[in-house]
Amino acid sequence: MGSMAAMVLDQRHVPISVFGFEDDSMDAVANHEIAAAAVSPLAAGYYNLIHPNATLRILGFDETEPALTWNVAVGMVRPDDALQREIDAAVEKLRSDGTIDQIYRRYGVALERPK
Predict the structure, then answer these.
(1) How close are the terminal C-alpha atoms of the chain, in Å?
(2) Given pLDDT bands bounded at 50, 70 and 90, which one contains residue 1?
(3) For the chain, which end, N or C, has fewer CB atoms within 10 Å of the first or last residue's CB respectively?
């Protein structure tokens, strides 16, 4: 309730069920109580990792719907240009040497490149 996915579905007059946690909604899909769930790809990947006998098929959101696509960012209260450059360099190093991909895979998550 209150998520961008819920708002988009409401605008399209699609009835929804509200769950307190993403795991609860994925359990409901796995138990055939509901047909689908709008959850983060991170949660879905990890759910599949820890529930190997109830693997859910993960479909991406409609990328033509701007409200359902976004990149992850880090905000800094007092921007510090030197610190930002160091963070950017460290993240780029971890991305280019495969460390970030390896960490994501360990948790069953497919890493999406920034768009």
Answers:
(1) 26
(2) low
(3) C
Smallest CA-to-CA distance from 100 within 87, 89, 111, 108 is with 111
Residue type present at position 55? T
Q: CA angle, corner 49, sides to 44 and 52, nearest 5?
A: 110
- For the chain, the domains span 1-70, 73-108
DSSP classification of residue 88: H
Q: Taking CA 58 as the corner, what is the angle to CA 57 and CA 62, rounded to the nearest 5 degrees?
A: 135
Q: What is the pLDDT of residues 5-27, one digit of tens each?
A: 888 889 999 998 889 899 999 99
Give me the amino acid identity at 46. Y
- According to the model, what pLDDT value does residue 48 have? 94
CB 40 within 8 A of CB 22: yes
